[in-house]
Amino acid sequence: MQHGKYRFIAGFLILPLAIYAVFVISPFVQAIYYSFTDWTGLSSDFGMVGFDNYARLFQDGVFWSAVGNSVTLLLLLPVVTISLALFFAFMLNVGGRRTKKAVIGGVRGSGTYKILYFFPQVLSVPIVALLFQFAYNPESGAINSALSAVGLDAIQPDWLGDPQLALWCVMAAMVWANVGFYVVLFSAGMSSIPKDFYEAALLDGAGRANTFFRITLPLLWDTVQTGWIYMGILALDVSAFAFVQIMSVGPGGPDYSTEVLPLYVYQKTFRDGQAGYATAIGVSLLIVTLIFAAVVMRLGRRERLEF
Amino acid sequence: MTAQTDPPELQGVTKGSPQDLAQGGGTGGAAPEPLAPAGRGTGRGRKGSSEGGVLNVFSHGVLVIWGVLVTMPLLWAVVSSFKDDSEIFGSPWGLPSALHFENWVRAWEKANMAQYFGNSLIVVGGSLIGTMLLGSMAAYVLARFEFPGNRFIYFLFVGGMGFPVILALVPLFFVMKNMALLDTYHGLILVYIAYSLPFTVFFLSGFFRTLPSSVAEAALIDGASHARTFFQVMLPMAKPGLISVGIFNFLGQWNQYLLPTVLNVGDPDKKVLTQGLVALAVSQGYKGDWSGLFAGLTIAMLPVLAAYIVFQRQVVAGLTAGAVK
Predict the structure, then answer these.
(1) Separation CA A207–CA A104 (nearest Å)
(2) If DSSP codes are grouped into helix, strand and coil, which group holds residue A199?
(3) How confident is the model at residue A104 (pLDDT cuts 50, 70, 90)?
(4) At what angle do helices B53-80 and A61-94 cross, to 10 degrees?
(5) What structural domains and CATH numbers belong to chain B?
């Protein structure tokens, strides 16, 4: 029996674990090892260089603009996305007319709003990024022609071509793509908050803003925190790479104004043939990610409320 | 803020409260529209009082604006896919003078959209089956059997959720090159499976833990092997969880962009849909065939949106499942 059990466990684990080890774990470990080498990626011989790659990071201006842009995204993208989503979700659930029997109520048609808002979530990043790239096109894009249509011919920004604006344009597309998911997520959380909490608060004379900050937000805190971490990882890694790589000129431009860490790792490896240095950049991205997760966990720790 | 409740209002609330809770409690999406109250104010009851009316108009206004912001770019792409190039440049906001269906034909045939679609189907089909099978096997063993190293393996899997994928991709490219897996369907399938395992194992092991153990024990006593118990008893019981995580993985893998961009670049005929769209955008940009590009975008967009609208409930449940746990 015992023998059979262990054979079964081994039989079930061996394949998933082998695939995971070969394609995920071993590359991670190798990456950290390669960050101490001068490996080009083009040939198989390389030498150990100690911390040279890391020392070089400090002199690399492009690296620091990538850090700056990644950290900007990391700080702003979750705040903007989650605040907007909380606002819309609160409107959906509590913004309705007050009726005789229910002190608070959702707006009519909230189901339809949620279906619409969720659309971007099911589309791939290339679709969203390409759509926005057209919309931003200075000559024939939807935004500038809408501006001229309402008589604002003088205001025709270059959007993605303007180093001052490019990063904000990319961020707007990322916010657009992600708000809907969190509206639906928070809305589900809000609708499970018992209505008599609100009734009690309103009886005591609390305003809507007050009920939001004193009731809704604390009871939703776990979900908000999870969302925050998800958005932060998204802003640092895969999603930021895809949006910037597809939308920006260069990519990463103009003038490195949209360069982000994952894109720089990619460019250093596959464009410049500096795989060893690229993994050092990747390790610094890993460090930023870990600091972020630790800070959110630490700041967000509060007593869990059961209801 | 109109929330300052006036006294009569309060009376109504307190009087009817038990009934009220029963009605108001489980409202998920639909606006709670309570029945006409028994007490006073029946006349205005159905439509709701004017209390909160200003807020209601405001919230509808805000919600409609965001709704328009979300749908407009999508509609704009669909409308543009029927225009010719001069209309796209001349009047971005105008309606097409004639429906140029040939854009769609051109995108589907000449611009290889059909090929990219097929590649995506093959890769995602293979990787989805593999992910679900291997993920549920690992999750089941980790959730329901005690053995040395169980926790270690579990955290090895779960830890993979938070690490920057791009860091692993640099060495992975060369690992795959040495194994001759670059630019192959099976190579891409294996990588998709590997990078979907962390979430799948995390979610499904949580799910298997909630299932009652008495059924599995009964099956074992009746002489079923562990493997048979898993496939014929436990998997069917885990169906809701499998559907959620299956939808999550399907969308994630169908929309995957980073992995193919790094690992599947050598052979233009092997491109998956997301890569194909970006390649199309670059090449059509040179050719100036913008209408073909919009048609390509629309072709990529509509099936996913249609599937979402049909399976709306399941998709939302599947995608939010990981975050609410």
Answers:
(1) 12
(2) helix
(3) low
(4) 130
(5) 107-324 (1.10.3720.10)
